[in-house]
Structure formats: C-alpha cells, structure tokens
Design a protein that fits this description.
Layout: E1 2-3, H1 8-26, H2 32-45, H3 52-86, E2 94-99, E3 105-106, E4 110-115, E5 120-123, E6 126-129, E7 134-139, E8 152-161, H4 171-177, E9 182-192, H5 199-221, H6 224-235, H7 243-251, H8 262-278, H9 283-300, H10 305-323, H11 329-343, H12 351-365, H13 367-381, H14 385-415, E10 417-419, H15 422-446, H16 451-459, H17 462-476, E11 482-484, H18 491-501, E12 509-510, H19 515-539, E13 546-550, E14 559-563, E15 568-571, H20 580-588, E16 595-598, H21 603-606, H22 609-615, E17 621-623, H23 631-643, E18 647-649, E19 655-659, E20 662-668, E21 686-691, E22 694-698, H24 704-713, H25 716-719, E23 723-725, H26 737-743, E24 747-750, H27 763-771, E25 775-778, H28 779-782, E26 785-789, E27 793-798, E28 808-812
Parallel strand pairs: 7-9, 15-16, 16-17, 17-18, 22-23, 23-24, 24-25
Antiparallel strand pairs: 1-12, 2-5, 2-8, 3-4, 4-7, 5-6, 8-9, 10-11, 13-14, 13-26, 14-15, 19-20, 20-21, 21-22, 26-27, 27-28
Amino acid sequence: MERDLPRPTLLAVLVLILGRVLAWSVGFTGWGVAVVLLVAAIGVGLSKRRSGHARAVSLFLGFLSVGVATQAGLQSFEFHDRAAVASLPEAPFVEVSGTVDGHPRVGSETLLLWLQPGAELSADGSEAFLSTPLPVQFRTDNNAPRVETGDHLQALGRVVPVDGDGNHLSWDRWLDAQGAVLLVRASTLQSTPPADPSFWLRYRRAMGRLSDSTEELLNENLSTNSASLLSAIMLARTGGLSEQQRHDFQRAGLMHLFAVSGLHAGLIAGLIVLVAAMLGLGPRSRAIVVLVGLLVFCTLTGFRSSVLRASLLVGVFVLQPLVRREVEPLSALSSVALVLLVFRPRALWQLDFQLSFLCALTLVLASPGVIAIQEHLGPKLGWKLPARIAIRWLQLAFVSACLQLALAPIVAGPFGMVSLIAPIANALILPFAAPILGVGFLGALLHPIAPEMAAGLVGLLDWPVAGLSMATTLFARVPGGAIEGLAPWPAWAIGIYYLILLSGRWMRLRRHFSPVDGAWSVGLTAIFALVFLIWFPLLQPIDRTARVTFLDVGQGDAVLVETGDGVTMLVDAGPERGQSLVRELRAIGVDHLDTLVLTHADADHVAGAPALMDAFPVGRLVVGGSLATTKSWVSVAESVDRHRIPVVQVSRGDVLHLSSGIQADVLHPTAEFLDEGDERNAASVVLRVSVGETSFLLTGDADFDSESDMLAHLPEANLRSVVLKAGHHGSASSTSMPFLGTVRPAHAVISCGRNNRYGHPAPEALARLQEMGVRIWRTDRQGTLSFESDGEHLWVRVERLTDAEPLIASWSK
C-alpha cells in the first residue's frame, strides 16, 4: 500500500512558504490581505459541506494567511526602521545602546555582535528605536573586548545602510537575510553585564564561555591553519578561514562541513549514547542525556538554523522508542520546518536554513537508491570488509551526487559555482572527517574536567586536519571540477528545476517499495534535471562585464575595478589632493567600495585613502603586509581604526573573488619580500584581474627584482595579460624586457603626472614597450582611461583627445 508524499505538515510548510513568497514579491507591509484570507479560511471551515476538499481548502487558506501575515510583519518592521534612521540628523557618528543577543563572533581583527530588537540610536539629541536586530562591528586588532550574551552595550560608531539588493556574493546579502537594515561600525565600545540574569541567560553565557574555551583549546594545541579549520568545522566559527580556504572547500563541494548540522548532531548523539551505555544507563536515561547534550551543542554553536534542524530531528528519533510510535522521516522533517518557520520567521531567507532542509529532504527522497545499492551489490560482492567499504563509499558518492543536484540552483547564487567533483570528494574525505570531529568533540567534553588529557587528545589532530585541508585543495584544483561564474537563478527557473527533479514515481514513499524501481526513478529524473542544470546557465542573460578605470590622479596610482553586478574594488588611492578623487568617483557613480587595495606605503599610492574612508563605506582593506611605513601610512592606519574597517593581508596564491567569473589573483609579494624594511616598491602587491579571457595586470610599483621573482616562480599563463599597468609609473627600473616577453600585453597604461619631477615615464621604459609593439596609454596625456570587457572583447575610452588618439579606441581578440 502506497503512502503519498504530501503529508499534512508538508503541505502546511509549502503553503506557508507560498504565502511568505507572495507577500515578499508584492511588498506587503500590512495585515489586510492576511485577515481576508483568514476570514475566508474560517468561513470555508464552518460551512455546512464539511467534505475533505473543504477542509483542505480551509487549511490552505489558513496557512497562506499565516505566511502572508508573517512576511508582512517583517517587512513593516524593516520599513519602520529605515524611516526612523532616515529621520535622524546627519552626523558622522551615532550613539548606540542595546542588549547583546547571542554570542559575539570574534574574527582575527573584527568583533561582530548583534543587538536585540529595541536597540536605540541617537544623534544630536534625536533618537530612533529599532524593531529589527542591529549588527555592530568593532575592529579589535586581536584584542577583542569581553562581550557576552545579555550584556548592555553602549557604542559610538558610523552607520552603514545594508543593501539587500546588492551583489549576491556580498556580505550585505547575509546581513539582510538576518533581518538587519543597517550596520554600525563602532569606534568605541563598552559593555555592562546584567544585574540579575535569569537562569536561561546564565546558561547561555556559560555555554558561550565553554565555546570560547574550546576554541582556545584548539588554538593552543594545533597549528594556526589546523586550528582555524577545526574551529570552523566544530563550532561554525569561520572568521579565521582565509578566502582561499573558503574557495577550495566550495569548489570541492565540502562547504557543508562548516554548516554544522546532521553529521555533527549525529556524532554528538553517538558519543553520548556510547558514554551512557558504558555507564550502564537505560534507554530512557540515555534519551534524556542525548537531548540535554543536543541542547548544549545548539547553544555552543549559536542556535544556527541548520543545527536546530539536525538536533530536533535527532531528538525526534531518540524519543521514538519512548513514545512507542513510528516516526515517518518526511513528517518529522516537515514538523521541524514548521516549528522553525513559526518561531524563527527570518530563517526562511537564510542560506543555512534553505540548504539544511533541502539536504534533509534529499536524504529522505534518495533513500530508495541508497538501499538499492546495498541490496544489489551486497550479494554480488559478498559481505567481507573490503566489499562493505566499497559499498559504503559508493552509497556516499551517490548521496553526495543527489545532494549536489538538489542544491545546485540554491548555491549558484551565493557561491557563484556548482561543484562537480563533490561526489568523489565527499566519498573519500567524509569517512576521515567524521573521526576527526569525534575526537575533537571528545576533547571539548573532557576539557572542563581533564584539561591535560583534552590537550593531548586534540594535539593528535594536527596532522589529520592538515591532511584533510591538503586533500580538499587537491580536489579543488582538479580541472573542470566545478562550474564557476554562475549567476543567481530566477525564481521561475528554480521552480521548473525542482518540478523536474521531483517528477518521478520516486516521489511516492512506500511502506514496501521496490528498490530497483526507486533507483530507476531517481536516475531518470536526475538525468533530466542535470540537462536543465547544464543548459539553463547558457540561456541566462548573465552580466559578466567589467570596467577597469585608470584614474588621472596626477603623479600617483588609483585603479577602479567595477563588475556588472555592482562590486567595486579600488587599487591604490593616489596622492592627497583634497576631495578630488572622492568627487571623481562620485561622478562615475561609485557610492561604496567593497574592497580597497593599498599596494604599498608610498604617499602617491595611499595618501588619498583617509578621505575615501571618510566619504564611502569600505568593506575591507587589502594590504600586502610590508613592514615599511610612511607618514601617509600612519594616517591610513588611524582612519582604519576610526572607521573600524576589516583588514586582510594577502600574499602570492591568494585570490580576491569579486563576482561571477571575475577575480583578482595575488601574484606578489611573498614572505621574503616582506622583510625588506624600507624597500617598499619590492614588496608591492601585484594583482591579475581576470574577466573571462581578458586580464589586467596591475603591478603597483613593482621593480626589476619583483618581476624577476614572478618570472622565476609563476607559470607563464599566470602572467599573460591583455592590459598591463606599467610598474612604478613607467620608471627605468620597471617593466623589463623579459617581463614584457612573458606578459605579452596589447596595451600598457602609464599612470603619471604631467611634467612630474621624476621624469616618468622613462625613455628606456617607453623604448621597451615600443619595441614589443605595445599600445601605450598615459594618464598625463589622455587623462582618465576606461577599459570595458565582456570577457572576449575590449573597449577603451579616453578622457582627453590628443593628435594621435581617437576618442574611442577598440580592440578585439
């Protein structure tokens, strides 16, 4: 006898989500529509014809009204807060006060904490009270102040609006999903513990301290890279991960390890059951201990949606023997989703909630195929240990492939890629990741009672974690291992995709199903979905264009990179010239800088940075890490401290991911160039910005030594570029013939001031460029130069005409 897939709780979840989506797409901020739907639901329910169809319609309208009302309420709160903040008088800084909600996230240089709804903003005697959560960011320079859940916080900082419609890779999107309408970058911060905390608050504060001590345990007994990676996997604390590590785990399809969900909850429950059995506890006592342990785990990881989903599901199955009722996986999953959507309505728009429930749903629906692998291969291969291992690995690869298919449209937006190597990577890495996690959790449990034993146990994980990281990097480097440069899918395409994926007879869960039948159904629908997955991105109008503008800042450098979806990166800020650079950027249409790169400390590259930080929100500052300083560099450091801007240090091998198909690879410096003391030019940051098949090599003030090092240690393909910014403003000590012979640029841009006292560009550098047949552009003659590319073609626009150049020059590959 078959049991249809649509269960009442599943239908309730789907209809509630439909109501949320409708309210979001229309932009409701009132409850009128929800009230009408609710009245209609009650009317149908009370009608004389109480047929099954009438009850179904009544429930449909009822949950639809709940969804509309919930989303309308959230949107009205956001509208109120934006209006309240806009009503405050303009001021460089605002005073903030409120109650800290949740354990603060501590990164290497920043502290991020959230204030509960009701936080107060004040400026020049005016006040505004927020109905939404308020994120506060504070730059710590590795000296984070002690802030805990429930503390009363007072801060002084700068307000930065959160633009949820921005680039899908931006941090703004994440903040918007958490319900924030603005971010405060605090320059001063003071917290006061609560006078009379409740039991629940005392418990949460204690768990926050335990989480901190666990992270300290990892930091003290593991290498830096291993500690940051294990902290991310165990505690979801990803602040210590480098951008390259994140990218590698995305390409390998292993980002779910940082989600801290089913695998982690299952391991925690298994460890607790093992210890409880060793202590001789009965089934009832074991279940209670497991539930308490899962509650502790949820608190340690900050009650993330993925952790709550996994822990609630594990808890349901743990209670199954006690209540003596069969738990249907799909009904249990739907019930958990319904509970979370009612009590945490913002979770619907959060990526971890979406991925977590899609993963769980996929595991349920793919179970016939998993069982079929075991039932068909088991008798053929026998049940000896090698055969069992092979079957388990094959099942894991099958499940991973199903998960990648199920999650593809959702991860395409936030990550800009879909991993193809994931099934193999998961099948080979997860069996080793599970025991690493188990030992790590055991060490965390032992730490409060036996710190020396815990330290010794955790210390054993250094090499295994390093090996896991190395294996991930190898999988990430496999050619063709991921489809990159994907744009977010529109809602209609996602709907079509899931209709295809869920269209087979395998949608129907049976008490007595045929594994072969289920496997064939999964295979057929997966093939159709895979065809759609591959072909749809080719049909999308994806904007992969970029514009690279070499700004005329006189004797200095300032290069602006803009992507088609609004990401901005400025490389160097030119000499100090009042507000001229700010005005020029505003004239171009720039209202924020996602990334500011300062290649080195010379004044003609960094002196204009403080004015930029005062004028625009800056997402992050990227530096090379040279020890050299100047007076201008000190001013930059003061501005960074004042505005609490996160600082990222890069070196060769790092990648700055800007947008879909657009990235900047760091080619220089390396560690040996960072110890040159006063020699700043040799340690200059060199970036290669790739836009499809077109690339721009931005060399800062790199000299012959820097060029020689890159030639000696980098493949020729990593240096080949269409456009070269000539090093050091075209000086004689840069842009050597061997370097030009490898880069082979079609265009060279020389950024220099008219009649400058250094004689830039040097005749020797010009002669070398002319000998190579390179088209030379100069900011002292043509002014600001803009290069636009769609990945294949390049268009050049100049500000000023000369006798030799047209207004618009174009070049095609």
